[in-house]
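hey so u asked for the seq, here:
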Amino acid sequence: MTTTDWNVRAIGKDLHAWLPPRRGWGLANCGLLVSPRTALWIDTPYDPVLAGEFLDRSRALLPDGAGIDRVVVTHANGDHYWGAGVVPDAELIATRGAREQMCFEPSPPQQHALVTGSDPDTPLGAYLRRHFGGFDWSRTEPLRPHTYFTGELELSVGDYPVQVSSLPPAHTEGDLVVHLPVQRVVFTGDIVFASTPGQPGDHAVHWAGPLGNVIAACEQVLDTGAETFVPGHGPVLDRAGVRQHIAYLEHVRARAHALHGAGVPAVEAARRVIAEGAHPELELPERLVVTIGTEYRHLDGTGRADILQVMAEVAQVAHELEAGGGTATEGS
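ran it, structure tokens below
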């Protein structure tokens, strides 16, 4: 994939979304809000190459003398955060929950070493290289946010108000959403993984949960009255698209609870939900291993999962799907 494939789309007055050309792990949407004197990024790309391209595209849209002075990070996963190093003088804003999440995330060099050092003849090594091998974090050190908050944060970008709201644990332990009331747009981060009939997406993946919190967060973004929603991944949505995503989350939640009640182990439950094929338009069905496993941990009252172990289970299920002629997964 070349960075020139990425699409910058105007979605409101002085508001732009940077959208990837296809689906896949790590290919996240970002936002740019411009005013005569300053500009704001909402999330950043995954590595310095993509982030540098986003910066070049952003500068082409800025008035003379304006710069990217603030970056709001919707959560601490690297595909929304690690590109901030290309604007080192910008104020980096995240939730206090994201600060806690960062303690459990691998650093960029650690992830680079894991991807390049894993045995490609194992399911995990092959999966990591296929989906993450196109990124380079070997010289990336993430900046620490300058501003942490809980609750509501009111910002101004020129004359435009920006309303930032932290959330209870959902996709991660430190999510936020960004509401731009003048433009009637919300950037949801990974609370939403979008799909539309013309642009199918990927299965959602949620690390913190429970799914009830994710569903409540989706309802919260609808309550803003916004008309346009930029998800963390996938196509831009209208209100009906968010409701459709809520229905998907409710389905996954109901199946997880039913299978848990029947005593089916979590990974086997994910296999069964995948085999039911309720959402054939979605790629990366193996990610249900993560989301259903997260829901099981809440039902069982157990603690945080080991990320590497979970990814090994994801890779094994993907390997089984490929070997059995199941739904193919898409690389990054």
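The CA atoms of residues 38 and 67 lie 5 Å apart. Residues 239-261 form the longest helix (23 residues).
lmk if thats what u needed
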